[in-house]
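Async update (no meeting this week)

Hi team, since we skipped the sync, here's where things stand on the single-chain job. The sequence we agreed to prioritize is pasted below, unchanged from the tracker. I ran it this morning and attached the output directly underneath so nobody has to dig for it. Comments welcome in thread, and please keep replies under the output.
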Amino acid sequence: MAKKKVTESAPKVDTTNVFGLHPEVQEQPITQTLELNYMPYAMSVIVSRAIPEIDGFKPSHRKLLYTMYQMKLLGGARTKSANIVGQTMKLNPHGDAAIYDTMVRLSRGYGALLHPLVDSKGNFGKVFSRDMSWAAPRYTEAKLDAITAEFFRDIDMDAVDFVDNYDGSMQEPALLPTTFPNVLVSANQGIAVGMASNICGFNLEEVCDTTIAILKHPNHDIATTLKAPDFPTGGELLYDANALNEIYRTGRGSFKVRAKWRYVKSENLIEIYELPYTTTAEAVIDKVAELIKAGKIKEIADMRDETGLDGLKLTIDLKRGTDPDKLMARLFKYTPLLDTFSCNFNILIAGMPRVMGVGEILEEWTAWRMDGVRRRTYFTMKKKQDKLHLLKGLKRILLDIDRAIKIIRDTEEDAEVIPNLMIGFGIDEVQAEYVADIRLRNINKEYILKRTQEVDSLQEEIDDLQDIINSPQRIKKIIIGELEDVKKKFAQPRRTDIIYEHEMEEVFEAEPEVPDYPVHLFLSREGYLKKITPLSLRMSGEQKYKEGDGPAQQWEASNRDEIIIFTDRQQCYKARLSDFEDTKASVLGDYLPSKLGMDADEKVVWACLPGDYSGHVLFFFENGKAARVELSAYQTQTRRRKLTGAYSDKSPLVCAFLLREDLELAVRSTEGRCLVFHTAALNPKSTRSTQGVGVMTLKPKYKLEDVRPLTDTPIVNAARYRARSLPIAGALLKDVDRGEEQMTLL
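Output:
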């Protein structure tokens, strides 16, 4: 009987709640999300990815090098990089591209390390080039460089711990047992979550000498043996004793490195052949091109990259009459040819990130290396102890070989051979197994005597090894010997020259020649500035202004003068008149808010030519106060183009005056009152944002409206308005003193 087909479908259940979320999706507080999701990720990046450990390696470096060691690439022939990348993925699951990038940085061809760890063949790019990309891994070959033997000498002697790889299928070393402080020799950089690490490289010989000196004398002055950082790209390090001592002490700080160059007189060109470690050839060329385009560098005819098989070479063709020293001084100032290296010696110690000075790093490395040597020594001693134990059992057989043979021959079952030998000679199971496995041809007195003669020498070696384990001084001597050996085999001369203060050439930057000629300046109320030569002014017609705009101030000046522009945001901007193009009366001129990069909606309220910065500036505010500020308060030693807090913001500014010598001013309020006073009554202040002192007493609904020199007013009877003391309300203006037209703000 056929089964009845079920056609009715099960009722559908709404799997969303009123908020449109699946019932399995629950809201979670942000603090809980950070704790459960973000913090584990952050710690993983810090501990397992970005920050190097005391052996000088990040996990990616360590996994790659150990894989190459397992592939017998130390001392063997090179193999395709693609093969190495594929094998490394057994330890590093982050993808082939990331693994190959790691190998490129460690390679000799790329040149990022003082002592490359990968002996490469093929195009591996260059550290000093941003755009020179390396070839794909199927085209390049690599093997381990000779110096990596110092990383794997103790790898099979229990000197370091081994841990499971990501899938538990094999084991890898937690650290590599380096015989020298590689953490200070190989430059390293890493960006984690909330922290970073930036370790510069040092010369191998200097690092070994410093470590040896500290092992012998813990209070050794590091700066006497560790001269300064060293970089594979060379260059010249500008020596600053205080800055380097701070780095050595704290692990933080910075120093400057500049390029090396030479002048080829016969061809009138400059060749740059070494760059700072932190920049690239393309970055330098781009910056120089930017300076040429902006008109700041006019001595360069052409610049090109002539890098070839001989190494880096940037060539600068000079125009006739150019002083190469002065030009390079300007290029050092404005381009990455002189760059700063910022140090942040952040290293993982027992899984915890720590920023340490050089002394602390060497102390930690020494303690870690001493433990490694102790573990290695114990491993060797244990091997010898096991061998001694076997030989002691063999020595007992020597007493009666025939008896041993008889015990074995008379034993009926194979399983009883070992127990019978143990009983017959009083030896343990391990010794009995060793005796039972001796070949028949070796059961002679000569063989057994030769083997048992090793007992005394083995015992002496074991006692010596035990003494090493118990003696920190002997362990230090072993480490010192290893450091001397490393220095002898791999030390190289410094690549980065050190330029001490007394060796630095005093090359003063030549200021661009600014032509000096008279000009007329016109500033409009809307903030347009015109710079017009006298000849152009005589030939021009009426001044042109934007609709609704008009003249505010005008001056006669020199093209070399400075101008200070004050705005309604209590800020002032400084500029040179030579920065403005000569123009005509028929154009609007330069719009200052755009030209000077002012803030949005910021407006010009007043300007002046400071000259030699002698004199004072008078500010008058709506609340009846006046401030007399020394003009020198706006003078800066650096070329700052913007100053904040140029005047007080407690009340709106009515007007300002540049005061070269004291004079009488007439002040008028919206009530129609006027007072006349001498500016000598105002004491000058050196603080720009001073609120000033009261000059005119105002009723609540009135405010100060206008200020101008007494000589520029129609006032006839000045004595009526002259103040004996300040502040004062002033007297009501008489019709005769008002003049035919109302006073206007200059």
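Quick observations from my side:
The longest strand covers residues 551-558.
Residues 260-336 form a domain with the Gyrase A; domain 2 fold (CATH 3.30.1360.40).
Reply here if anything looks off.
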